[in-house]
Structure formats: C-alpha cells, structure tokens
Amino acid sequence: MEKTYVSFEDIKKYVDDVFNHVKKSGITFKNIYGLPRGGLTPAVMLSHKLGIPLITDREKVSSDTLVVDEIIDKGDAILNNNLQDNYVVCLTLRYTSKYQPRFHAKKINDDSWLVFPWE
After folding, report:
1. How far apart are CA 98 and CA 101, in angstroms?
2. 3-state helix/strand/coil string of 22-83
3. In the chain, N or C: fewer CB atoms in 10 Å?
C-alpha cells in the first residue's frame, strides 16, 4: 500500500483550520476530547489554542465537549464510541467514511496509508 507522510507543518495548518472553524461556529465548548492515540496530539494543540481543558476520560465527555480525531476513515471509532451526537472535527477525512464530522481540514480522495508524525 502506498504511504503518504503527513508533516508537522501539515498538522499545524490543519489544526489552524479546525481552530478557525470552531471560532467561527460561535459555540463555546467546556472541554476537548481527543480519541486515544491519533486524536490526542491534535486535541492537545487545539486545547492550547482554544484555552479549554483537555479531558482524557471518555466517561467525562458531555454534550459541550469538542471531540477531535486525526483521521476518519470509515467513522467506526466515532460510531463505536457513541460520539456521533457530539460536535466532532477531524484533521483528515477519507472519502470512504460513512460518518461525516462537523468539519474536516483535508479530504483524502485515495486509499494511501497516512503516516502521521507521532507514528
């Protein structure tokens, strides 16, 4: 399978795009939750930019929690964790996803394997 490497410069741009989207939405979030492993790094970055606390306990996610993931391939991580009713954003969204987040910074229209800098 072809690999596509995502740089930290790309990540910074995607996080800025998500930050701008969230600010324009006008919604105030109490906290931010990053899906374990991939979503944690961008959630930490957004937590700093938005000035809201990061939570790591899935049980503390509420209706006013911003949920972040680095990629949504199919949407299973969101759906299997019953997070689909939350305000979900992601850095990258694959064309194959059956779940559509509120916002994504980049659409992936191929089947390449994305390798993020923290992997």
Report:
1. 10
2. HHHHCCCCCEEEECCCCCHHHHHHHHHHHCCCEECCHHHCCCCEEEEEEEECCCHHHHHCCC
3. N
For 11-68, write each residue's pLDDT tens digit: 999 999 999 999 999 999 999 999 998 999 999 999 999 999 999 999 999 999 999 9
Name the one residue in this structure whose structure tokens are 């492993």. 37
Single-letter amino acid, residue 50: L
- Domains, the chain, with CATH or none: 3-108 (3.40.50.2020)
Q: How many CB atoms lie within 10 A of CB 8?
A: 11
d(CA 65, CA 62): 5
Instruction: Give the contacts of 9 (CB within 8 A, at least 6 positions apart).
Output: none
